[in-house]
Amino acid sequence: MWKRIKNYAFYGDTDKDSYQGIKEKIENSNRTTAMVFAIVASILICVMFLLSFFMEGFAASRPVYSLGIILSLVQVALSAASKKNPWLSYVSVYMAVSVFLLYGIAIATLTRPEEQTVTFMVMLIFVPLIFVDRPIRMAFSLIFHICIFIFMAYRTKRGAVLAVDVTDAVIFGLLAIVSETVVYRAKIRGYVLENVLHMMSETDQLTGLNNRNCYERCLLEYPELYRKSVCCIYIDVNGLHELNNTKGHKAGDEMLQYIAEAVKRQFGGKDSYRIGGDEYVAFVLDETEEEVRNKLAVLKSEIAEAGYHAAIGWAHSDSKGKDFQQLIGMAEAGMYADKSDYYRSHDRRSRGRNITG
Questions:
Q1: Domains and CATH numbers, the chain
Q2: Alpha-carbon distance 292 to 230, whole Å?
Q3: Which of 14, 168, 229, 283 is deepest in the core (most CB within 10 A)?
Q4: Is the pLDDT of residue 292 over 80?
């Protein structure tokens, strides 16, 4: 029971690992929303600030509008800065929430204390639903602002207006907490499902490596990912067809899985791909040729110890802006040369019998 409550409060009724998998997506969504929200808010508050010079009803709120413009512009700057500093996206979110809730508090308690509060109650319900975060964190933020409102209400309001506003703040506050928790749960679970479907579409089901779809997409990104050097390793398993024929497809699958795990151990899962039935490609970023050679030596040793063999070619570049297709072509050519050497010394008809599986 406690675990379910914890997962609901901290991870939107998912779990820690699932939430971590969508954290970047949540940050990007919040950053975009906060930016749009801040720009719109700046424009609207500027309009009200200008109206305060021409309409008597707005004049009393001019100091609040001035502060709102300043805070909204700071919000725009924070949202822009969060592109390079992801943690600022959370600062941006809670600043946006605070700007609007404090604006509602100021209107209700400083400029119109004799009237029942409407603006703050609307902001309390509406603003949190625009973003996505851990439900418990937003709940504490709302409770904090409700306490500020009640404190300011007792200092500025009197009689029935005070009683109604405090009661409304508690009721609408509870409603806001419940509604943001329910909405965040739906959004977070939606992101998790989307992430699972995306992973399935880009993950090889047999080996767990990235698949061809992922490989084709990521090729466009690699030229911008490395700083000094990049290396492409091209691997082709020898004897898969013969092993399938002599010992069955289960033995062939086990060989592919073993080699995939060996590749992942040396080059990591993020930049390793199964691009065909018996072909793998891995990229190594910002490592020296010597470091790559050492990893390749370990990889070949692990494959040989299991009684398997794979043709391996690789190409390394120390220049930025390298033509990736050319780099991959060089690695593939090296793989074919290694495969030819293997076949010259092994009878094609017997190589399947020589693989232990």
A1: 2-201 (no CATH), 212-354 (3.30.70.270)
A2: 10
A3: 283
A4: yes
Any idea which of 60-69, 141-150, 305-314 has the lowest mean pLDDT? 60-69
- CA-based angle 344:347:351, to the nearest 5? 115
Q: pTM (2 decimals)?
A: 0.69
Pick the residue with more confidence: 220 or 80? 220
Distance of alpha carbon 232 from alpha carbon 280, whole angstroms? 11
User: Can you say whether residue 159 is alpha, beta or left, with left for phi > 0 and alpha for psi between -120 and 50 degrees?
Assistant: left
For 127, 128, 203, 324, the CA distances from 211, given in Å and listed in that order, are 41, 38, 5, 18
**pLDDT mean over 233-239:** 94
Residue 231: is its pLDDT beyond 70?
yes
Q: Is the pLDDT of residue 357 over 70?
A: no
Give the other-Cβ count within 10 Å of 304's Cβ.
11
Angle between helices 88-106 and 16-51 (to 10 degrees): 40
Indicate the average pLDDT of the chain. Answer: 88
- Evaluate the CA torsion angle 306, 307, 308, 313 in order and state its sign: positive
Res. 78 pLDDT band, cuts 50 70 90: confident
